[in-house]
Amino acid sequence: MTKFDVQGFRTTAKKTASKKVYRGRFTCPDVQWTGSGPDLMATFTVTAEELADAAESGLIWTDQDVQRGIVPGAEPSPSREISLTDGYPDRKKYVFNIDNADDMAEKLLFGEKLFLNSLIWNLRPGQFEAFADEAESAVYIYSGRVYLPDSHHRHQAILKAVRLWRESPKEYPRFQADKQFKVELYFLSKEDEGNYFFDKNNRSAPTAKSKGYDLTTTDDLSILAKLVVEKSKNLSGNVNRVTDRLTASNSQAITLSTLREMMKTFSSDQNVDTSQLEGLAIVAASFYDRLASVRRELGVLHLTERRRVRDELVVDSAVMMHGYASLMRLYNEDLAKRGPSAANKEWDRRLSLLSATHSYRFGKWRGDIFNKSNPLWQEVGVVKPSKTPGKLTVVNTGGARGECGRVLRQLLTIDSQPQDLRFLTGR
């Protein structure tokens, strides 16, 4: 099967009135062909303006049957096929992440680095007319619709950026109208468009967040988290920066993705001013090291010891790390209010209440506050019975994270002390 066997490709080009080659509605330039049979595809490069012009001409469409879809229950039933030129789909009718598209459009407008995957086009066999000019290495599209099996958000972002720039070019002097984008052109049936979307969005194995955060130089919270690792003697070498899980063969205390989420709580913002990064990192590292001096489980442990701690305690669990983050934020506030000397003295006293040498009582139970067997953790939803009889599983949901913070604040008498959890001296 060659390109001329795909239903829709002409064997000869159309002609203009002057008998020259008619290039149709859109020309795919400098085309490179790959594969054969059902795997046949073409790649080429377009500029932002060329893409916007193709959209404005009504060439590019999405079919929501094989995209993210129509919002369930939307009435009256919205159109299944929508043109890219209509702009962002109505979120009341269609599933579309406006924030995602806006973020890409903003980066384009202000000339920031933006690494985008290829744009995906599809011409459905039997529903288009085109000519592949081998001499010119070009494809001339005469009629039909180009569908987007994927990359809808990327297309909308580029179109919006071009439109805003054309309306007010002086406001966006760093926008590059000739910025280039790679396009992959397929020849799939509607059914195979759906299969393509599934493979790209459901079968993919994306890079672990921890690895992505480790590599980025533009995400403020990731930068802050990495600075904290550098400044903490207990986190250095003790953070998994490659994957988002701590397996039985991994002795590290935390993943970089969890530490980044802690920084979101600590800084109370997604964006941190560059001038504040160093200071915040010093504070966060100081707090973690003070905490680790009380709970040695948060420091570097031998693998055998780490396994024992994970089996018996919640002290180094990812969900509890979010509880520590809420304390870290309050510690930072106290430094500003009281000054380092007074704040550190008070927080050393508070954190000592979490020591394993103290015994807590919850009903008839007594022991280390962080022991999984403490009924408190089941009551607040931090642990639950495992499928394995006699075992408990740690829960890492948003609600459980919030409960960890609430309980820790009460234990340290920052919040009002609960009636059913009382500090005991001695064992």
Question: What is the secondary structure topology, with strand pairs?
Answer:
Layout: E1 9-10, E2 26-28, E3 32-34, E4 41-47, H1 48-56, E5 60-63, E6 81-83, H2 98-109, E7 119-122, E8 128-133, E9 138-144, E10 146-147, H3 152-167, E11 180-186, H4 190-201, H5 209-215, H6 220-231, E12 239-240, E13 254-255, H7 256-267, H8 274-294, H9 303-312, H10 318-338, H11 340-352, E14 359-362, E15 365-367, H12 375-379, E16 383-385, E17 392-394, H13 398-411, E18 422-424
Parallel strand pairs: 1-8, 5-10, 7-11, 12-13
Antiparallel strand pairs: 2-9, 3-4, 4-11, 5-6, 8-9, 14-15, 14-18, 16-17
Helix pairs in contact: 1-3, 2-3, 5-7, 6-7, 6-8, 7-10, 8-10, 10-11, 10-13
What can you see in these coordinates?
With 427 residues, the protein is of the alpha/beta class. Helices cover 38% and strands 16% of the residues. The protein is built from 13 helices and 18 strands. It has helices at residues 48-56, 98-109, 152-167, 190-201, 209-215, 220-231, 256-267, 274-294, 303-312, 318-338, 340-352, 375-379, 398-411; strands spanning 9-10, 26-28, 32-34, 41-47, 60-63, 81-83, 119-122, 128-133, 138-144, 146-147, 180-186, 239-240, 254-255, 359-362, 365-367, 383-385, 392-394, 422-424. The strands form six sheets. It has a four-stranded mixed β-sheet, with no helix packed on it. Strands 3-4-11-7 form a four-stranded mixed β-sheet. Helix 6 crosses helix 7 (256-267), helix 8 (274-294) packs across helix 10 (318-338) and helix 10 (318-338) crosses helix 13. The N and C termini lie far apart (80 Å). The relative contact order is 0.08. Mean pLDDT is 89; it is low at 423-427.
